[in-house]
Amino acid sequence: MKSQAKVLRSKTLYEGRVVRLKLDRVIEPGGVTVDREVVLHPGSVVVLPHLDDGRIVLVRQFRYAAGKSLWELVAGGIEPNEAPLEAARRELREETGYDARTLRPLFSFYPTPGFVSERMHLVEASDLVRSQASPDADERIRVGRFTREHLFNMLRQHRIEDAKTLVGLLWLFGSSRLKK
Known about the structure:
Layout: E1 6-15, E2 20-27, E3 33-40, E4 44-49, E5 56-63, E6 68-72, E7 74-77, H1 84-96, E8 98-109, E9 120-130, E10 142-146, H2 148-156, H3 163-179
Parallel strand pairs: 4-9
Antiparallel strand pairs: 1-2, 2-3, 4-7, 5-6, 5-10, 8-9
């Protein structure tokens, strides 16, 4: 079976600052011909920041699409010609006021592969030093520092609803079990 789809036609329906929406007529592997709506996104980073005392840094901000404020790992888009580690360093500083002496790429994943092309890169940040936060003009960010026990309880109580944060925290708790 072929692993690629054959595009018969493609039409851009919308082009914005961050995303582009297109409608493609494709023949998918296996021979199915179908129309697919795809949101094209340049990719983003998710940062898992560790303080020296073991606490994890999260940010809380209002998310219009969700209709509420959410606790999240630091995250943001990758700028043109920017490497994921550069984007992680920039986003961490902008949103939290921390700089990381050590950044470690963990893995990449697709948060919504059914219709969004965005690939997220999870990066671990450690050896943090205080810096100056500089959030975007439209961002109102609250920074929180949580013990692993507190985060584990937040997960159990379903207080973490953001998918990228769930991925990062579940990796954190899973990897610590693997090390034992």
